[in-house]
Amino acid sequence: MQEVLNQLKELSNNLYWTWNNDFIAIMEEINRDFWKWSSKNPVKFFEAIDRQYLFDIIEKRNLRYRIHNLYRDYRKYLTSKETYFEKKFYKTDKPEICYLSAEYGLAKSLKFYSGGLGTLSGDHLKSASDLGIPLVAVGLAYSHGYFRQIIGDDNRQTELFEQSDFNSMPMRLVLDEEYRPVKITIDLPGRKLHAQIWQLNVGRVKLFLLDTFVDENTVDDKRITDILYGGDVEKRILQEILLGIGGMRVLDVLGLEPKAFHINEGHSAFLVFERIKNKMSREKLKYKEARELCYYSNIFTTHTPVPAGIDIFPRWMTEKYFGEYAAEELNIDFGALFSEGSNLYGQSAGDNFNMAYLAINNSHFINGVSKLHGEISRKMWKLPETRSQIDSITNGVHTKTYLSWVSEKIYSKNFGKDWIDVENIWQKISELPDEELWNLRNQNRKKLVEFVRERIIDKEILLHENDSKVAEAKKLLDENALTIGFARRFATYKRGTLILSDIERLQRILEDSGRKVQLIFSGKAHPKDEGGKSYISEILKFARTNGFKKNIVFLDNYDMEVAKRLVSGCDVWLNNPRRPLEASGTSGMKTIANGGLNFSILDGWWVEGFAEDTGWKIQSLENEEGYSDGQVNEFESKSLYDSLEKEIIPMFYERNEAGIPVNWIKKIRGSISKLAPVFNTGRMVKEYHKKFYSKVK
Ligand SMILES: *Cc1c(COP(=O)(O)O)cnc(C)c1O
Fold it and tell me: Which structural domains are found in the chain, ordered by start?
């Protein structure tokens, strides 16, 4: 029995479990309530659970064999010599690429992410691990992470920042031979900043996160890594100094020497200075020579098409933190350092230091995250023809992370346990019989309805609401109704309330008794985004109006778990950003393998994904024509309603003798066979490797 426990503990400490549905199922079978209590964190779970109880349950439920198999698969995965990279290229134990990001979305219980940028970074690491790409990653260990969303009776979002206990999480402090934490230091005006390092294992890939909660730091400095995207501009520059400069020092103290550096969004771009500094001192070079050499091994991925979305720091603040660094470490005057971030081939950021300018000026390889975003970025930052141009690599998702237990079971029943490695698997899945694909949808939708009810009941019980509220929650939603989902950060450009533009029309759509339609919303607004918060209030008000209680739900506290439930349970995934502001978008990709269908504005990835046989589009008005926001919203919401009324709802409810919506299934076939093989991070990371990583010598 001790062996089983050791295996479970080892499994808990590698985030491999986050994309292993069987592990999650085993946790639920051991004790569902306890799994919930642990916030679905297996390390905490096994720390706290009673040994004897655990052993008894494993025997009683016959789990020993399953755990053993799971463990064997895990060991095989970790030690495989058959990875994409090793088969195609060469064998190496040393990381060659360093990936840096301000956020990582790896699991619900690791609150180091706020939205799509984070889940993309997490998925990047997972796929790098699957492919055997020699990559190491660096980020920040936020003690309070991103907030828990609380929705009050007043329909307002409030934020609760909870402290994580890193010691009970799948991460461990990096220690030296004498079991003392390994630390890095950075000179700040009048003091030193110290940080310790946490290691997370993402399959084969190691992720190192910096943490400033150490005794040597002042109270204020300890708080540098408390909150993700919180505080003022000065706190932001400190976080970014820690990520960029500190990130490079992590590699040094750990003796790692990657040759390519992937700056995922501008937050980590200060690393370019530290790399130049290291090159100067190690190879006895002048600033200019070192800068030129580093340039060819930096990779910059930009994620926003709006200049306002990019971090900028005032000149005085940049000088405060980099004045001495310029003179003493780089041997240049501050003006020269400042111009790296204020001057982009003649475009000027004025008296500000722009992190994207810094990254672009210092990276040979630059990309946007969809074809359209690549184009927009080339227009936004006109680079001279004498230098490399902005390319694009379209985002993807780590398919298994978002695949439901239901979907996974149906696939493994038909194609075996290692179904995902079967050649042309998506083509084959799309050719499953009508009944099987419809069964996949019905089961996924049913699970979602159960999940929503349970979440709401749990909340009512917590609030000591009366039994009638609980009884009401048990009747929420209908497991057979057409289910439309909208969930993502509530940034205003994503227009969470577009579908509420014409309440009467929406009412008619929702109340057609023969053809039930239900809507599920979820998402957090940034604490300072009053616009986004008011959108949430508007939806809540609407959802809580009597007539709509049953078929419109706003699920609070959107996170990776809610995302997985929604993308698998919803029949239609709605996305209506203001074009072209959605650089890529990824949540829609998560629905594909679960048989969900996309209904979206032609923005970001959907420009590439949409075809008549893969989903639906919402017509958009082009910005350049000078339409007002109101006109654009009116036109686009009309298109949204038209498609719902004329195409989507009729198609879902048009059934054959066996009760199957044959044309709907046809669309699912098109979506799975054409989109699933493309919009995944396996394809994406291979593309980064081929175009960028492998070009760095
Ligand atoms: C995938 C995901 C996102 C990104 O959603 P978009 O629709 O691409 O903006 C945000 N948050 C969570 C929790 C996600 O899983």
Answer: 2-79 (no CATH), 84-396+685-695 (3.40.50.2000), 481-679 (3.40.50.2000)
